[in-house]
Structures
1.
Amino acid sequence: MRRPLIAGNWKMYKTPSEAEKFAQELKSIDIYKERDILVCVPFPAILSVSRVLSGTSILVGAQNMYPAKEGAYTGEVSPLMIKDSGASFVICGHSERRQIFKETDDFIAEKVKAALDYEITPILCVGETLQENEAGETFSVIERQLRTGLKFLSGNTIEKIVIAYEPVWAIGTGKNATPQQAQDVHRFIRKLIEQNYGQSASCIRILYGGSVKPENIDILMAEADIDGALVGGASLKIESFSRIVGFQRI
Ligand code: PGA
């Protein structure tokens, strides 16, 4: 009943011309009626990638934004700007934003709210660090990130968001969580949302991210609460991304 979503996160890779070329190649990948495909591209490429992909079912997203309509925020990009360029999704609170740019749970909550205010789907990222994982704090960290990150949301808006569980120790390391580890956290997330927002929890898509590749996508997608993937490195090459998009049901 939940439509799978495979999202690429290009991070700070591909110039606008490389991105446009890649978008042309993306047009050749197999489209599955019952799956959503999304590419979250760098700001300068949103417009050209959206133009190339218009008329296809491949969706375009941003990787970040500032939670205000406009204003004196030198160097920042607003929800209105990304939307007008063709983005319908935005990643909020990626661990690289949390760690490198010191984004807090409260600031991320503002981004989630701003995205919804502009009818952009936020992908709220949560995930524990290696240290937190080893200290047995995984569930408490996820709970804190979710409670604060979703604090402005009401019962009706919760259905419009996507959550991505990305254990920080699995991002870009080649070490993915086992399907069972990921499933346990995804189930925990869904239960937490259910406690706070009731039945809406059953329609929310929860993606797994962290070293997703052609070799592990099928077993991850076989888990009951894994509704898709947020893919970094493996989304940069057409061969690996199209294989992930075309995951097999096992
Ligand atoms: P990775 O990145 O697939 O390269 O581990 C995932 C992410 O950061 O979203």
Note: The mean pLDDT is 97.
2.
Amino acid sequence: MPPSSPSSRETPAAALTDRFSRRHNYLRISVTDRCNLRCVYCMPAEGLVWRERAEILSFEEIVRLAKIFVAHGVDKIRLTGGEPTVRRHLHSLIGRLRALPGLRTLLMSTNGVLLATTAASYRAAGLDGLNISLDTLRPDRFAQMTLRDNHAAVLAGITAALAAGFPSVKINVVVMQGINDDELVAFTEFAAKHPLEVRFIEFMPFDRNDWSASRIVPYAEMRRRIEAAFTLTPLDAGPHAVAKEFAIAGGVGRLGFVTSMTENFCSTCNRLRLTADGKMKNCLFSTTETDLREPLRAGATDAELTAIMQQCVLGKWAGHPPMEQLVELNNRSMIQIGG
Ligand code: SAM
Ligand code: SF4
């Protein structure tokens, strides 16, 4: 029987270890549900309701919860959203999280639109790496996919990220059949020329994002098309890696493939999520959420919050259902969960 509350004799990681012995040391924190883009695969075309300001966790609340997670073994945090860079004074949150004893790696996922003027300040505040979303190298297509005209700004953001000296810069590309799958080779050329990793991500289903299995370009197919033009050599990405990584012969950068749909990585999953409105999710596709905000605001102690976090972790399933069933799940959209 799982314990109902953590005991002081437990090792730091015990509270965040699930029924399948998976230790969770990676927390993704969404800092806002707002965004300056409208990517068609990430949010419904209509009807999304933004959370009220009071519903969103303050920086103090985020740091308080993060501190508890870190005390129980989380050593890697990724800030995400919505678009994290639209949250005011984000660099101060970065600095406060960076100062948590035990946190080794602090990363952020961003669409890059605002990075040209902010990347250096995030690096100075202690951010270790950036994943920047860019689904196309063509400005006209960018406008179709994001419903905004910010392609040049994102390219300038990537340049600024590289100039700011981040140890890790990755470009996230959601690959959609018939939309941008003709750019696989062009993106590989881009990776070959720059010191970064281009990550091709299989299109995933979320609330009203017009997903269908026929719009996925499977990992095997992506590799087949790229390897017709380039020689790829597998790299060891570590036990919890979600991406299969490859060196590009003669290239500076590398490639990664995030195969959530055709080859999931549930058995080694080490990730937990905190939404901008203070809900904990034990899986990107989980249909249940655990509220941390209300107990926090009601004055719960660290031990009480830890017990709630532990119950959430113990409720994690062995793996998410197959992709055909994911589309039927009652889940939020990616922009609301925090990718
Ligand atoms: N706004 C930031 C950004 O775009 O990077 C952070 C949040 S975004 C939700 C995080 C990541 O989720 C992005 O790389 C985005 O491309 C990815 N994403 C969103 N919807 C997706 C979907 N349906 N399938 C696969 N990846 C998706
Ligand atoms: Fe915004 Fe990122 Fe979602 Fe695009 S993928 S709508 S940039 S949160």
Note: Residues 33 and 304 are 27 Å apart (CA to CA).
